[in-house]
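We examine the record.
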Amino acid sequence: MSANELKYESLSMSTMSPETALKLFENCAFLIIAGVPPGTEFGIDLKSFYVGEDFRGVKLIPEGVHFVYCSCRGPYGDMAPRVGFIHFFKRGEILIREWDNNTEELRHRVHDHIETELQNIKRNLRSLDGYLAPYDYDGYVKWSKLSANITEETIRRHSPDSGIIRNTIELLSCSDADRPRGVNSEATSPRSRIRMSVDAEELLPKLKAVPGTTPKFTCLPHRCPEGASPAEVSMHYIDSIAAVEMLLSNREKEFFEEIEFTFVLFVCCHSIEALNHWRKILLLLSNSEKAVEKYKGFYKNYLTVLQYQLVELPIELMEQTQNNTVYLDVKRLVLNCYQAGITSVAQQLEKSVRETLLWKFDNLFEEDPDDMPTIVEF
């Protein structure tokens, strides 16, 4: 069996032959970690576990993109939020990380003899075998479906400059002078007071992220540009083709990679910012039949990956209710795909969510009462 004949997708640690395990040992990547406290939650991709005294890393990591994360245990047994990094492992690579006791997260190994240490590890890799957890090949098929299009360049393009990914962004404190004060409601007109209630976010502090700590997501365009006339506002909200064109023009592949990158940040690190970005993308892409007609290839791929992503959402986003915007957006997306003529992938997605999430898109082609014009009788 040559290295090129290894089929990672069909492997299982429970049934793996010694010959296959040896080939994996010779051709896969390794993650060597020093100093992780016992009881810490450690994870790679979709598999996590609590480490013991002898834990020194992970072996047999297949070539490609992988997400590594940790969550330390507090004095009362509570677990801290996950903190991690995403890395494209190359065949035969040995990646070294160490535990930082101050920040309670993994960092690059820090000393003056890294290369010497790396060479020593390579020579003694077999002696470390009993201290290394095997990669979870039982979950590799699912992971591959979620991350198949993420490349090394995708990681460089969208990862924070620090390389560390957290579940919430780090914010700089806001000085008292920069805090919004609001206005005296008694001194404002009724119209101004109405606007104040609508734009409540403007009364919140304008907090800025700590430089280098936030993922570099694409700035999504507004569905309706500023200064649009009432007729133009209606047109943009009926079909968001203009905003979708701004996103996809000459960068369909890169944006599709970003969608996958964004979602694995949420799945592995529970990133709130990533989930919000993913939901905004879904909203924008779901509300344009013209965009489906123009970018059929992109939408076919998008509906395919949505089948794998939707089942990984939090339970509150899986409920079939009129308050669940994800459900409503997916329903609208499926309808637009049917109307634009890409029925096979629409049927696939509809069948998938019916079986996995118990979603039903009844009366899909009937006019939504909320979208119908209001008739006023005098």
In short: The radius of gyration is 25 Å.
